[in-house]
Amino acid sequence: MSIERAFDELRFGPQRTLNLRDGLPTAAQATARAEAWLRERQVAKAGEVLVITGRGSNSEGGVAAVREALVKLFFSLRRRGVVKDTQEHTAGSFVVTLAPVAALFAAPRRLRHPMEQYAPDPTSLAGLGDETRALLRELAVRTLQSLGAARATKRFVQDEMRRQFAALSAAVPDGPDRESRLRAAITTAIAELDETFDD
Description:
Blueprint: H1 3-12, E1 17-19, H2 27-43, E2 48-52, H3 65-79, E3 83-90, E4 93-98, H4 103-106, H5 114-117, H6 122-126, H7 130-146, H8 154-169, H9 178-198
Parallel strand pairs: 1-2
Antiparallel strand pairs: 2-4, 3-4
Helix pairs in contact: 2-3, 7-8, 7-9
């Protein structure tokens, strides 16, 4: 094991490292895997993470397709409030600084990914538990207040709740405890907004 790799393992550990060289994914597979992982790590407040793409030396024509696809993804996720900064770490890896969860709601709507721009219809929120909907409402109201809306109409609050649900649900993978993890992500976003107000 090289000394650089040993330092990376100490600095990031397995929870904050995504190795896309494993399994030799296509560029599309690597992009989908990386986006889901980065969104999940953002909600987990991982801070800095290491994404290993490989150099592409075994790629067809010597073109690092996975690496190039990830560079585009990082740019897209930065506009959408998931990534704060990206630095090339080595010729085959990047250090990605994740944005606070609250940044998901500060990203300009016109730049949002189409999947996030059109929130799910209200019936999807009806399937959530009362506690989750109450937290979403609190987050919506606080977000609107942080944007300068002193008095938000019922429709604005509902639209904001749906928008936040769409953004956060993309970051919370499926599983038996998905709603509790969604509540944890909402609570994190509320705490980050409170920190912003206190500054």
